[in-house]
Every structure is written in structure tokens, then in C-alpha cells.
Design brief:
This protein is an alpha/beta fold. It contains 16 helices and 25 strands. A seven-stranded mixed β-sheet has the order 15-18-19-14-13-21-22, sandwiched between helices. Strands 10-9-8-11-12-24 form a six-stranded mixed β-sheet, sandwiched between helices. It has a three-stranded mixed β-sheet with strand order 1-5-4, with helices on one face. The radius of gyration is 24 Å and the shape is globular.
Length: 481
């Protein structure tokens, strides 16, 4: 009989009155059974976090850094176990799951380093005007209050890390809500945090269902919300609490631009391989996976067959097999939505070059051309292993095609020309431009977030720490300077 996983309430394990099953999207087997907090237990966690605000903010930096270092080291020690868990509950191929654990290791390590050097302020002399003579301003950053972190299913460990680690680094209590489809990875972080000396109440991991979220979102004791997920849900949260500070990392339909100077066979082989890999990694369930390829007309005819061949070489199958590149989507319903969108595009005139088939929750890696501009596949985030390829006449037309979207998370530009790279940085309406590679590249310490409907604010450890804090100025008077 499967035991029930407890959640973490103010630093200790607890169980509620109800529970739900977590099943594998690959074969439907039971991965774990997870307890659901009662309303009273959620209230207890919020009250505990609110009560410890001042104590946690005053915790010495070395204590917080040591806790973060501990989590980082324990993740290393338990890498294979945790990777197997991610793969089981998410359906992510094991090689990508191992990579996710490695990224979480880095996130906690980065946070420990930032906690030791973070002061977030500066000294400013005020005697630049006569009225400021003998005065000095000191600016420091302080936590805004308790953080409510809401994590998605697609990176069930690392995106929980991106909520928790910056909060601990600045001394802000955090309540983490992992995705209901993949809560077990977030609960593992609770196990590791429980081994540290952080104050009771400074963190909770609550496996609450989505239906309970509105009450948490509106609770005035939780002034900061960090959400990763769909644009529809993210902006609904922001609209419901306009006076709260919200960081929203939302959707995208990442474009990879291949320009005329990227024209050698070696160049095009590289571009095709990278595009095929990162349109399909995580089953395409990444906000920065390659969804659109925009190729200059001069390279289009040579690039397209290379992309199709590279996509067809992707190994689809059992996520526990190290040879597997593409596993199932998070659910059969998710795969059925992708199937519907592809069928809609084909019925509208798109050409299906490969893929286009569903088997349960698995959708075959797919490439289409001539996709009508008004179908979902062209306008929305597919969040599946589907790629569209279009032709552009020159750089300006290619960049205009990237910007012809309500989303603006990241874009990749394959070029060797430095001036073109700087023009792309200036012209593309996205949060990040990756030159010489796909839009799917993310280093966990860099600023990460979008423009337009792809979100508000930035993740990346140091940048999230800024988001979780505010500047407070201290003016000293009567100084001889």
C-alpha cells in the first residue's frame, strides 16, 4: 500500500484530511499519494510566515547562506533519486531530469553566494546642494514581506528552487505551492530545508489544489506573488490583486531566426540540430522551446530538410530510458489539445512534413510549414513538440515576424555578424536575445523574463532578490565630510 506524502507546514511535516494521487503520464502508474492541507492548516502556515517576518529578516546572512549551501549539496547527493522522481511524476526523459537537478543545485549555490554579498544599497552624499551639507544617505534593501511562490509542472524542481532560494537569500518568508500534477519534487525541497536551522515559519510547502488559490492570492499577509505559468492565469492573478507586487513568468512562442550569413553546411547542420533538440526537449513543454523558425529565403530550401531529418531523429519513448529524447506530455488531455491545434492548422492549409500523431499522452515530434496566421498554432503557445517553419526576405522581415506575436519571452538569432546581433538586441521585443543559438538557452543566474504578454519582472537569483525587496533610505545628519 502506497504511503501518503506529508506536506510541509511552517517547517514541519503535516497531513490533512484529504489526499490525491500523482500518476505517471507515461504509463499511468501511481507515483505517490499526497496529503492536502485543510483550510485551518493553510491559515496556520500563513500566520506563521507573517509572524516570523522580522525575525527572518534579521537572521544573519551566514545562517541563510549556510542553509542554501546545505540544500545545494544535498541535491547533489540525491541527484539520481530526485531525477527518477521528476521523470516519474512529470514524464520528462531521465537525461533532461538529471539536467534539471543540476540546475537546481546551481540555483541554491548562486543564492548562497548572493546572500553573503547582498546589501542592495549604496552611500550617497547629499551636500551637492547647500541644504544637504553635512548629510549622507545610506540605502539598503529590505524584504517586502511574505512571498507566495506558485510553481508550474514543467520544471517541478528547478522552478520551485527559483521561488524558494531568492526568498531565503533575502530573509523573506515563503509559502510555496507546487503544481498539483507534479508536487513530489517540491516536497523533496521541503525535506532538505527541514535539515537546516532556518526559523520555524520561514517556509512552507503546501500542496493545495488550484481551487484554493484565490484565497491565498488575496490574503493581505502575502504581499509578494511570484507566479510561473500561463498568461491567462498570471494576468488574472495580477488583476485580482492590483496593489500587490507580482512577478509573472508567463508563456511564449519562441522564435529562432536563421539569417543569410549563417549559410555554410556546418552552420545549417548546427542550427537544424539545435532547433530539433529544443523544439522537442521536455516534450516541448518549456516557455522558451523553439516553436517558430523564421529562415532567410537564401537558406530556407537547404535548412528545411535538415530540420525535418533532425526532428525525425529524435528518440520518442519511455522517459526512464537514457536514450529517450522526447517523452509524454504531462497528461493525455494536454496531448489531445496539441493534436487539435495541429489538425486545425492542417485543415486551414498548413503542410505537415513529419509527425502529427498522438499515442495517449505522447505526441510525435512535428514540423509544419505554410501555417495560416490566424490559427492557434501560429498565435498561441503550443507547449508541445511542434515546430513551424516560415520563409523571410531579409533581416527586417524576419525580425518583424518575430515581433508579430503577443508574446515576447526570448528569441534566438543564428548569425555571425556582430552588428546584426546588436540590431537584434535593439529591434526584437523580447526579454532575451540569444545569438548563435536557439531561444531555449537559459543560465539560472541571468535575468529571465519577458515583454508584452510573456510576463512582468525578472527571475534569475539576484534579480528575484531585488523583486522580493525594496529600498529604504537612511539619512545621517551633522557629519563632517
Amino acid at each position: 500500500m502506497t504511503s501518503t506524502h506529508a506536506f510541509w507546514l511552517a517547517g514541519r511535516q503535516a497531513t490533512g484530511e484529504a489526499a490525491f494521487d500523482v500518476t505517471s503520464p507515461w504509463d499511468g502508474r501511481l507515483v505517490g499519494r499526497v496529503s492536502v492541507p485543510t483550510e485551518a492548516q493553510v491559515e496556520e502556515a500563513v500566520a506563521a510566515a507573517h509572524a516570523v517576518i522580522d525575525e527572518f529578516a534579521a537572521t544573519p546572512a551566514h545562517v541563510r547562506a549556510a542553509a542554501l549551501d546545505h540544500v545545494s549539496k544535498r541535491l547533489v547527493e540525491r541527484t539520481e533519486e530526485i531525477a527518477q522522481l521528476i521523470s516519474a511524476e512529470n514524464g520528462k526523459p531521465i537525461k533532461w531530469a538529471r539536467g534539471e537537478v543540476g540546475r537546481a543545485v546551481s540555483v541554491f549555490r548562486f543564492a548562497a553566494e548572493e546572500a553573503r554579498r547582498f546589501n542592495g544599497g549604496e552611500a550617497q552624499r547629499l551636500d551637492t546642494d547647500a541644504g544637504g551639507q553635512g548629510r549622507l544617505a545610506l540605502t539598503r534593501r529590505f524584504p517586502k514581506g511574505v512571498v507566495l511562490g506558485i510553481a508550474p509542472f514543467n520544471f517541478p524542481l528547478n522552478l520551485c528552487a527559483h521561488k524558494i532560494a531568492p526568498a531565503i537569500a533575502v530573509g523573506a518568508p515563503i509559502i510555496l505551492k507546487p503544481a498539483p500534477a507534479t508536487p513530489l519534487s517540491g516536497l523533496i525541497l521541503g525535506e532538505l530545508l527541514a535539515e537546516t536551522d532556518l526559523p520555524a515559519g520561514s517556509w512552507s510547502v503546501l500542496t493545495v489544489p488550484n481551487e484554493q488559490m484565490p484565497a491565498l492570492v488575496k490574503d493581505e499577509r502575502l504581499p509578494v506573488i511570484s507566479f510561473t505559468g500561463s498568461d491567462k492565469v498570471g494576468y488574472a492573478i495580477m488583476d485580482s490583486v492590483p496593489r500587490k507586487h507580482c512577478t509573472l513568468e508567463l508563456g511564449g512562442n519562441g522564435a529562432a531566426v536563421v539569417l543569410a550569413d549563417f549559410a555554410s553546411e556546418q552552420d545549417l547542420d548546427w542550427a537544424a540540430t539545435r532547433i530539433a533538440t529544443f523544439s522537442n526537449y521536455q516534450g516541448g513543454q518549456s516557455c522558451i522551446s523553439v516553436q517558430r523558425v523564421i529562415a532567410d529565403a537564401s537558406v530556407y530550401d537547404r535548412l528545411l530538410p535538415k530540420i525535418v531529418a533532425a526532428v525525425e531523429a529524435q528518440v520518442t519513448g519511455d522517459p526512464s530510458d537514457s536514450a529517450t529524447d522526447v517523452g509524454p506530455l504531462v497528461s493525455e488531455d494536454a496531448a489531445k489539445r496539441v493534436e487539435y491545434w495541429v489538425d486545425e492548422a492542417v485543415q486551414g492549409g498548413a503542410k505537415l512534413l513529419t509527425g502529427g500523431k498522438r499515442d495517449g499522452a505522447t505526441y510525435a515530434p512535428t514540423v509544419l510549414t505554410d501555417v495560416p496566421a490566424d490559427v492557434n498554432l501560429a498565435c498561441e503557445e503550443v507547449f508541445g513538440p511542434v515546430l513551424t517553419v516560415t520563409k523571410a526576405d531579409g533581416e527586417d522581415e524576419a525580425f518583424a515576424a518575430v515581433n508579430d506575436s503577443k508574446y515576447g519571452l526570448q528569441a534566438g538569432v543564428f548569425t555571425h555578424d556582430l552588428q546584426t546581433a546588436f540590431r537584434a538586441h535593439r529591434a526584437l521585443e523580447v526579454g532575451g536575445v540569444i545569438v548563435g543559438d536557439v531561444p531555449s538557452y537559459r543560465a539560472d543566474q541571468m535575468p529571465y523574463g519577458g515583454a508584452k504578454q510573456s510576463g512582468v519582472g525578472r527571475e534569475g537569483v539576484a534579480f528575484a532578490m531585488d523583486d522580493y525587496t525594496y529600498e529604504r533610505v537612511l539619512v545621517l545628519t551633522g557629519l563632517a565630510m
